């Protein structure tokens, strides 16, 4: 069974450690300051026999012919059987306020039956946004994180060899039209919506810019009025408030990732009075058939007599109790006293939540 990893995120074990100040820009997003996703369809060449089989991937042959024809090479009617090319999808994110000539990172993913993209070179690929316009052009040598090694009777794969990256592999060719100075109000969107945190941000901004500068709209939005005039007024206002620090509210939350077995428990999680028992049964069945033969020259025949051994072994620890308002540290100490393996923690947390003893949001991904 896959080993599970237990990660205990102890944000604070005491009130002094719990009051951790964070910067405003680390917990909010400024309305309008955002990136844009880009997508392109391209061709990786120069692979060492690990590319697409053109017979199985006709789209690879089509894009190869298209590239060669743009370069003036006539391949109409030719039977292409190259194994050093692969059709790929190229994805990237255009950051906010990216300027023409700037460089951005791209991710290259094979869409055919290529075995590896390592060592290949991405041919010039236009990257389009949702509006259909080309905003960047990608090209360069791909860098993969996966490795494939095979022999006559065995093969080993480490990582994902069909996904690669190109650092700074795309050049920005078009800017996103956005007039920041035209904004009269900038909305701050909280990454974790909370009424108390939004109220603290409102008071924090009012203290820095003046009373009435900020207005809490809901648990996830605070509107900031831009009073200054002239070019760069909005940028200067955001620069004045983004490094302000405050103590945000944190929800009591337990996050479980079932795929990796990772468990993250917030320090504010509390447990009602509860008793926890963890154990299991180990069932063992062994078959040891025995061959029985008749005596020499005696009548009879050779037969196989079954011999079986079955055992049931009870395992696990005893019963542990946790008092009312038990903290995260007490919960972990109690489960450790039971000898609970990390892979059983998910089931225990689910049971505690179903019993109403877990005071916090249980998030299972």
TrEMBL record:
Q: What is the lineage of its organism?
A: Bacteria, Pseudomonadati, Pseudomonadota, Alphaproteobacteria, Rhodobacterales
- UniProt xrefs under InterPro entries: Flag_FlgI
Biological role? Assembles around the rod to form the L-ring and probably protects the motor/basal body from shearing forces during rotation.
The entry's keywords: Bacterial flagellum, Cell projection, Cilium, Flagellum, Periplasm, Signal
Kindly state one GO CC term assigned in the UniProt record. outer membrane-bounded periplasmic space
Protein name per the record:
Flagellar P-ring protein
Asked if Signal is a keyword of the record, the answer is yes
Outline the subunit composition. Answer: The basal body constitutes a major portion of the flagellar organelle and consists of four rings (L,P,S, and M) mounted on a central rod.
Q: Tell me the first and last residues of the signal peptide.
A: 1-19
Q: What is its main location?
A: other
| Pfam families in the record | FlgI
Could you tell me where this protein is found in the cell? Bacterial flagellum basal body
The Gene Ontology terms for molecular function here are: structural molecule activity
Organism name? Hasllibacter halocynthiae
């Amino acid at each position: 069974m896959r080993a599970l990893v237990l990660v205990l995120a102890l944000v604070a074990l005491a009130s002094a450690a719990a009051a951790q100040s964070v910067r405003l820009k680390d917990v909010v997003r400024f309305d309008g300051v955002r990136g844009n996703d880009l997508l392109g369809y391209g061709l990786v060449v120069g692979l060492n026999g690990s590319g697409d089989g053109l017979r199985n991937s006709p789209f690879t042959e089509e894009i190869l012919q298209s590239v060669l024809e743009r370069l003036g090479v006539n391949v109409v009617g030719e039977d292409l059987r190259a194994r050093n090319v692969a059709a790929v999808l190229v994805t990237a994110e255009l950051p906010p306020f990216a300027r023409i000539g700037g460089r951005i990172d791209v991710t290259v993913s094979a869409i055919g039956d290529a075995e590896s993209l390592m060592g290949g070179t991405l041919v010039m690929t236009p990257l389009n946004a949702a509006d259909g316009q080309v905003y960047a052009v990608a090209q360069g040598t791909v860098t993969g994180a996966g490795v494939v090694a095979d022999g006559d009777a065995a093969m080993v794969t480490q990582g994902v060899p069909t996904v690669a990256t190109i650092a700074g592999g795309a050049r920005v060719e078009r800017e996103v039209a956005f007039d920041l100075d035209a904004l009269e109000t900038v909305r701050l969107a909280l990454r974790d919506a909370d009424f108390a945190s939004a109220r603290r941000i409102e008071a924090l901004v009012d203290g820095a810019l003046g009373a009435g500068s900020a207005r809490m709209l809901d648990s996830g939005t605070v509107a900031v009025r831009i009073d200054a005039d002239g070019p760069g007024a909005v940028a200067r206002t955001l620069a004045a408030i983004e490094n302000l620090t405050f103590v945000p509210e944190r929800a009591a939350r337990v996050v479980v990732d079932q795929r990796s077995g990772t468990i993250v428990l917030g320090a504010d999680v509390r447990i009602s009075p509860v008793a926890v028992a963890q154990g299991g049964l180990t069932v063992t069945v062994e078959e040891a058939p025995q061959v029985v033969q008749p005596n020499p020259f005696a009548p009879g025949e050779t037969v196989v007599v079954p011999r079986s051994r079955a055992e049931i072994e009870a395992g696990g620890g005893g019963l542990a109790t946790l008092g009312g308002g038990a903290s995260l540290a007490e919960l972990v100490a109690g489960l450790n006293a039971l000898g609970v393996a990390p892979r059983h923690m998910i089931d225990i947390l689910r049971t505690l939540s179903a019993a109403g003893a877990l005071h916090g949001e249980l998030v299972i991904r």
